Amino acid sequence: MKKTCVIGWPIEHSRSPLIHNYWMNHHGIASFYERKPVEPSHLHEFVRGLPGSDYLGCNVTLPHKKAVLSFLDEVDERTHKIGAVNTISVRGGRLIGTNTDGEGFLNNLKQSGIALNYKTLDAVILGAGGAALAVIAALLEKNVRRIRLINRTMERALAIRETFGERVEPVPWARQPEVMSDCGLLVNSTSLGMHGQPALAIDLRGLPQTSVVTDLVYVPLETDLLAEARRRGNPVVGGLGMLIHQAVKGFELWYGVRPEVTPELYDIVARDIVAGYHR
Ligand SMILES: NC(=O)c1ccc[n+]([C@@H]2O[C@H](COP(=O)([O-])OP(=O)(O)OC[C@H]3O[C@@H](n4cnc5c(N)ncnc54)[C@H](OP(=O)(O)O)[C@@H]3O)[C@@H](O)[C@H]2O)c1
Prior knowledge:
Layout: E1 3-8, H1 16-27, E2 33-37, H2 43-48, E3 55-60, E4 74-75, H3 77-82, E5 87-91, E6 94-98, H4 101-111, E7 122-126, H5 130-141, E8 146-151, H6 154-164, E9 168-172, E10 185-188, E11 212-215, H7 224-232, E12 236-237, H8 240-255, H9 263-273
Parallel strand pairs: 1-2, 1-3, 4-6, 7-8, 7-10, 8-9, 10-11, 11-12
Antiparallel strand pairs: 3-5, 5-6
Bound molecules: NADP nicotinamide-adenine-dinucleotide phosphate.
């Protein structure tokens, strides 16, 4: 059977092979998922060559998620709005692109046992990059009441309101403490707090104890934001589950089986991040 891969530049850090090869093994599928370094200057050639290649499809990571859009034959409406693709499948010689981050985000919350009443939810999202766009699209599809969007570069937040409409309210970073009191879901979708990046400086004092706090960053597994929220008694959800859940759709598209996100798989990927990890 043909294989699958993740393309990026660089790509050595990707943990996607651990996830997909685990599922293949589990389902007895004779295929293989590999890391494929693709330089930006070779992106067009690689993607347009997929239909005649050994690949059923691929995942797409930095820096190609936006650039790849214009090389595809078909992209769903949500992915168009997000402006970034993380999954490509080949169907009848055509290249179909989608973005599965939003589904990964919601299913991670769900599997963590978080039951949110989306229709009455006020969310606060930090960050306005590609990941934030996917989360915003997913939350709006769930009919959330309002999303306060806080970003260092205000123009990016304003542009997102233009695309997604009035329920997205851009808020300057300096006013973050003021929007905590009616926040039911706080999401960090900046790269702050990630290993090797600056810390995320945020004031949680006004945040109700019942608010769910989630971080898309998963290296470290428990960021300072999550640790502080946990200390205050807030329910917290880490980003690694989202990474695993976003992979489900791609596997299903390529291999025709919807795989499960099991505690065993979570632990395998977690141990790749923290040696000796155990829950
Ligand atoms: N768990 C998962 O499955 C998953 C999936 C996707 C992404 N992620 C993680 O989510 C994070 C964001 O990814 P992305 O693809 O959205 O990246 P991106 O498009 O590069 O966006 C980065 C965001 O972080 C902000 N930022 C960066 N440095 C900052 C600083 N020094 N001060 C304030 N804000 C800063 C940027 O603000 P400006 O607009 O002002 O530059 C922007 O909002 C990354 O850590 C990534 O690993 C996780």
